[in-house]
C-alpha cells in the first residue's frame, strides 16, 4: 500500500483550542503515570504483536460480533425451551406421551403429529428470523480495514479477523473496526476529527489527539520494528472514561479518553489515522453497552397463557368429575351389567378396584377433553402474524422513496404489541432530527429582520384566520387539519393584532441554499449598507463570520465553500454570513480570512483577522468568544451565547437595544426558533496583555482545578459587553416529525427523549418538535459539578441524593398545586443526575414525577442509562414501552423495551440489527402504530377470543355426551370429524379474521387517533371480554348438545320410522357446531373481502363435501357407521335441516342482540365511525364529521396541536385586550 504524506499545511489545533488538546506530560518513571494495580486493570496489550494475544494468559476474543439469539449448538435446546414455555404446548406434550399408553381414546399419531407440526413450524420461523440477523452480522464482520502485516506492509483484512495488538490504518469517512489507541494522523500534530453519532447521538465532531511520543509514526514503513506495551483497564461499558499507560522506549505516558477511538465512530476531516487495537469484538465499549437479544413475548400471549391455565384447571376438574363418576359406575353399576361380562376384569374395568379404574379413566378423560385447549391456536397465530408482517413490509406508505427502504418487521412475535404502546422512548440525533438548521430571522440593533414564518406560526395563523372569517364553527374543533395542508394554498395573509401591529404569515419559499431560508430585502443584496444602523449590522455579520471553530473547504461544483463545523448551528451561521456578503474563506494557525462583497471600496476584498484567543462553548459557559485583532490594530472580543448569559454580562452602555431585543427573542421562541444573542467588546492593548498573561498561566497549568481556573479567567474578559442583536434559526427535523409526534400525542402516547446531546441542544430540539413549547413550565433536575476527594465521595453522594429527592418532591408538589387546567410541565434531567435517580431509593419518586409531566427529556445519557431508563418505565408503569433509535448507542434501550424500532438511516445498521421493527424515518412510526398496530391488536385479540369460544363450544359437547353415557369414555363424534375440526373446517375463517379484519380503514385510523387507545386500554382482550366469550362458548355448547339430543332422542327421522343412532346424532350435532361457529365469526367481522366470504362459507360447504366423500363406497372401510350418512340418512330427513337452522339461530341470536344493544345504547368509537361512513355522513354532513374528528383525539399538552392551541389562546387574549381597550375608548 502506498504511504500517505502528512498534511503539513493544516493547523496545530492544540495551540488554538482553549480547554482541550493539552497533551499530558511524559514521565520517565511511574510517579506521574496511572496506578494500574488491582482488579479491573489487568489488560496488557503488546503493540504490533497480535500473536501474543492468541494464547493464555493473554487470550483475548476476536473481533467477530454476533447479535443472534441462537447458534448451531444452542438452537435446538433453546428453541425447544422457547416453544414449551407455552403452557398449551406443555399440555399437548404430556397428552402425546400419554397417547402411547393403552388408555388413550385416540391413536398416538393423531396426538403426536399435530404437536410436531405446530412446534416445528414455530421453530422454523424462529430459525428464519435469526438467520436474517446472522446475515446482517456477516455483512458487518466482512467489512475491510487496512492492517499491518509485517515488514512495514499494510493489507486489507476483514473486521472479524482483527486481533488485539494489530496496527490498523483507518481512512477518511470509515468507521473504526474496534477500540483503538490513536498513534498518529495526517495532521502534523496528531489530531483527528471523530463523529460519534452512533455512540452518544452527537453530530458535532470530537477532536482526538495522539501522544507526543507517537507523532513520528506517520508512515507505513516506521511500523516495521515497532514494539510497545499498553497497560489499561479491563473491558467495561463506560464510553467517556479510559485509564491506561503507554510504555515505549523506557517512557511511560498516561492515557486518557482523548486518545481512544471507539468502535462504530467515524473518522471525519482527516485523511487517515494509525491506531493499535485495544479492545475487540464484544470487549469493545459499544458492544459492552449492548445486551444479548432478549426473548420478547407480547402481553396478549402472556394473558393467553393465563387463559390456558384456567382452561387446564377446568379440564382437570371435569376430568376428575368424570373419573369419580366412572369409578362409581364401575363399583355400583358394573356388577349388574351382565351384558358387559363383569367377570372378565381388566385394569380399566375392575369392580373390585374402582379407584384404580377411576385413575386410568382420569388419563383417558384428560386426553378426551383436550379439545377445550386448542392445539392449532399457536400455529394459527404464527401463520396470521407472518401474513401481517407481509402487509407491514409491503406497505408503500412506509417506504422511503428517496432511499427506497421499506419498513421491515424483523420478528412477528410482537405485532399486536404495536397496538398497545403507552410510552415511546426516542433517541434524538438521526431519529428526530436530520441535523440541518435554517437561518430564518435575526434582530440587529433592536430591529427585527426576516419575513419568513415557522411551521408553528403558519398553522396557528391559518387556524386563527379561519375563525376571523366566520368559519370557526367548522374549523375550531379540527386543529389537526392544519397540518394536512400546512404548505398548501394558504398563501400570505395579514392579521391585525394589538396596537395596530400586523402579524404576517408567509409560506416559505423553496430555497436552493441549504441552511438559509432568510427573506428580507433590507439586508439582502447589500441593501444593509444604506441602513441607519450600518455599524451594528456590520458587527453582527462579522460575529457570524468569525466566532466559530469551523474549517472551510473549497467546493469545486459551486465555486464557494463548504464548512466542517462542530455543530449544525455554526455551519448555518457561516452560510448566512456568506449570503449577507461576509464569506469565511480561510483559516491559518493565527488568522481568519473573510471575503467582504459589499465593502466601502465597491468590490470584493479579503480581510484578515488575527486570532488571539478562542474561548470555547460548553454546557456550563453557554457561550463562545473569540478575541481578534483587526487590520487597524484594534483588539475586539466577539461573543455569542444563550440570551440569559449574554444579557447578564452587558455593560450599562451596552443595553441600548436590550428591551427590543428581548421582545424579539420572545417572539422567536414562541415561533419555535432557536435563539442566540450576539455581543462584542473593544479591548485596550494593556488590558488585553494583562488578561492574556493570566489566561496563559491557567491554560498551561496541570491539575484538577485547571478547567475551573480557565472558566474563571475567561469570565473576567467576557464582561461589560455591548449587545448587537440575536439570531433565530429553525431546527430542521426529519420530514414529518412534528406531525407524527402530534398524532402520537393525540393518540394518548407519552414521549420521552433520551439523548447524549447537551441539555441546551436537547431543549431546542424539544421546542422544534413541539415536545416543549413557550409557556410550558420546565422542571430541570441537575447537580452542580464539584470536585471531591475519594474519602468525601460517600458523603457527597448521599448529599447529592438528598438534594435530588428534595428537587423531586418540590416539583411534585408544584404539579399538585397547579390550578390552571392548561398548564403543562416538562421534566428535563442530565445524565449525572439520572445516575442517582435510577438507584433503588430514588427511582420510584423520579418515575412518579416523570409520569405526571407532559414530556420528559433526558440529556447526556449513556447507552447503559438509556436501557436502564427504559427498564424503569417498563417495569414501573407496567405498560407497553417502545424504544426507537438509529445508532449503536440505542441498542441497549431497543432491546430492553417491549418493542424496539430501529431507524435504517445512513449511519450504520446496529440499531436495526437489534430491533424488532425497522423503518427508514421517524414519521413512519405514526402509521406503524396507529394503523398496523391498531389492526394487529384487534385482529389477534378477536382471533384468540374466538378460538377459545369455538373450542369450548365444541369440547364441552364431548363432556356432556360422556356423562350422558355413564362416563364411558365414548366420543359422540367420529375421529375424522374431530381431526378436521381445527385443521380444516374452522381454521381458514379464523386466519382470515386475523389477517383481513378492519374495524375502520387506514385513513380513518389516522384521522381519528383516539381509536388507538382501545389497545393500551385493552378493550378487546380484558377479562370481561375473555370471560364473555367463554360464557358464549358454554352457552352454545349447551344449546347444541341438549337441543339435538331432545330433537333426535326418541322420534323417527327416517321415512321408515327409524330413530337416530349415535353416529347420526353426532353428525347432526357436528353440523350445528360448524354452522354456529362460522356464523359467529361472520357476525364478528366488520370488513368483508371475497377471501373472507370464500373461507367462511367455503368451510361450511367443505363440511358437506367431506360428508358426501366420506360416505362413499371406497371410504367404507374407514368411515364405518358413517357410510352414506348424508346422502341416505340425514340428507332426506327434514328434521336434520330444521334442527340445524334452529340450533344455529338459537346459538347466535344472543350475540346478535348483544352487539345490537351495544351499538344502540353504548357504542364504541369505531361503531360511531362505521355508522357515519355507512350512511355517508362524512360527505353529506361535514360539520358532524369535523366534530367527531375533534372528539377522536386525546387531550394532550404536547405536539403541534397543543402548541397551536396555546398560540390561539394567546392571540385571543390579545384580541380581547384590544376589544376591551377600544370599548373603553368608545365609552369615554
UniProtKB/TrEMBL annotation:
For this record, the Gene Ontology CC terms, alphabetical, are:
plasma membrane
Q: List localization entries.
A: Membrane
Coiled-coil segments on the chain, per record: none
List the InterPro entries hit by this protein, alphabetically.
ATPase_P-typ_P_site, P-type_ATPase_IV, P-type_ATPase_N, P_typ_ATPase, P_typ_ATPase_c, P_typ_ATPase_HD_dom
Report the transmembrane regions from the record. Answer: 84-100, 106-124, 307-328, 359-381, 947-964, 976-996, 1023-1043, 1063-1082, 1094-1115, 1135-1153
Q: Give residues annotated as binding ATP.
A: 427-429, 570, 617, 640, 674, 755-757, 860, 866, 889-890
Tell me the membrane topology, using the record's own terms.
Multi-pass membrane protein
Instruction: Write down the EC number.
Output: 7.6.2.1
Where does the record place the P-type ATPase C-terminal domain?
912-1163
Q: Where does Mg(2+) bind?
A: 427, 429, 886, 890
Its UniProt entry gives the catalysed reaction(s) as: ATP + H2O + phospholipidSide 1 = ADP + phosphate + phospholipidSide 2
Q: What cofactor(s) does the depicted protein rely on?
A: Mg(2+)
Q: Where is the P-type ATPase N-terminal domain?
A: 45-112
Respond yes or no to whether keyword Magnesium is given for this record: yes
- Tell me which residues this entry annotates as catalytic: 427 (4-aspartylphosphate intermediate)
The biological process GO terms on file are: phospholipid translocation
What GO annotations for molecular function exist for this entry?
ATP binding; ATP hydrolysis activity; ATPase-coupled intramembrane lipid transporter activity; magnesium ion binding
Keyword Lipoprotein found: no
- Give the record's keywords alphabetically: ATP-binding, Magnesium, Membrane, Metal-binding, Nucleotide-binding, Translocase, Transmembrane, Transmembrane helix
- Protein name per Swiss-Prot or TrEMBL: Phospholipid-transporting ATPase
